[in-house]
Amino acid sequence: MKVRDRPPLTPLWALPCLLLALATRGGAEDAPTYPVWDADAQEQLVCRRCPPGTFVHRPCSRGRPTACRPCPPQHYTQFWNYLERCRYCNVICGENEEEARPCSAVHNRACRCRPGFFELSGFCLEHAPCLPGYGVVALGTPTQNTQCQLCPPGTFSANSSSTEQCQPHRNCTALGLALNVPGSPFHDAMCTSCPGFPLSIPESGAPWDWRGAGTEECERALVDFLAFQNLSFRRLLQLQQALAGPGAWRPLPPREDRVSLQQQLWQQLTELREARPGALVEGLLQALQAAGLPRMERAVRKRFLPAP
Ligand SMILES: *[C@@H]1O[C@H](CO)[C@@H](O)[C@H](O)[C@H]1NC(C)=O
Ligand SMILES: *[C@@H]1O[C@H](CO)[C@@H](O)[C@H](O)[C@H]1NC(C)=O
Ligand SMILES: *[C@@H]1O[C@H](CO)[C@@H](O)[C@H](O)[C@H]1NC(C)=O
């Protein structure tokens, strides 16, 4: 009697008997066979195949079974076989891959994409970051790229990142501070403790004088206010050049990358602020005039300077 390869649905109680039957099978008696022509005896023989992990060292002959030998290192046979030598483990993991299963006597080596990569059409591609203004809704998996979404109102993502979700804007009021710059999808809300707008009281002779209590905090607020105005790329560039002054050269950010340009501008304004504490506003108003940004100039005056 032959044990069926694929028994139809078996009642559970029968399972132990069946497993026992399968376990005792697999002995040499039940090994699959292959035909061999025995030239000496001039007859057709039926030889046993060799089990996975081995190969045929010598075919069977009359009264002598097939002689199998284990595969040498770096070689394998996956199935019952009559190969004369084992197959070489010829799968090599690529640059962006790692070993999912090492080479063994019964398997070729198998690779998968490294963490941080996903498979597409046989290639391992890096999980893309979500650009500023976009947050991660689903992390990349071995089979899928990162899923991004434009940050919904009230949230932001300032960084290009393949892990960061959109974060809620900070609530200046709840922090006991004043809102200086409203949040956008690209940046957080910016708060300040600069005491009141307009804030400074001009001293005699100076049309605007910030030297006094809170000056530093107010200059910080001015930097944020200016750098994160909702200006077009072209306007931002004009402003940046006017601030740098003639002859100064700064590396240009990639075309139309407003986020980087704003960050550069913020850096530039911060350097100005630190170079001459207390003297920021005067230079800025001049630069805004030079850059042909009268609306910004008015906004700065209205926000940070007392009415004339
Ligand atoms: C953005 O990345 C910088 C470092 O590159 C990090 O210091 C900062 O915390 C990140 N911003 C957010 C909102 O996580
Ligand atoms: C900010 O906090 C204040 C006070 O805690 C609250 O009334 C207000 O609704 C909050 N605003 C937002 C946008 O969450
Ligand atoms: C910024 O300006 C653009 C047009 O230049 C406008 O579509 C967008 O709504 C503005 N964003 C904010 C936060 O005011």
TrEMBL record:
Gene3D superfamilies: Tumor Necrosis Factor Receptor, subunit A, domain 2
InterPro entries noted in UniProt: TNFR/NGFR_Cys_rich_reg (IPR001368), TNFRSF6B_N (IPR034023), TNFRSF_decoy_receptor (IPR052459)
GO CC terms of this entry: extracellular region
Signal peptide bounds: 1-28
Compartment list: Secreted
Keyword Repeat part of the UniProt annotation: yes
TNFR-Cys repeats: 70-111
S-S bonds: C71-C86, C93-C111
Any one of the GO BP annotations: apoptotic process
Keywords: Apoptosis, Disulfide bond, Glycoprotein, Receptor, Repeat, Secreted, Signal
Name of the molecule in the record: TNF receptor superfamily member 6b
Domain TNFR-Cys positions: 70-111
Electron transport is among the record's keywords: no
SMART domains in UniProt: TNFR
Naturally occurring in which organism (per UniProt): Phyllostomus discolor
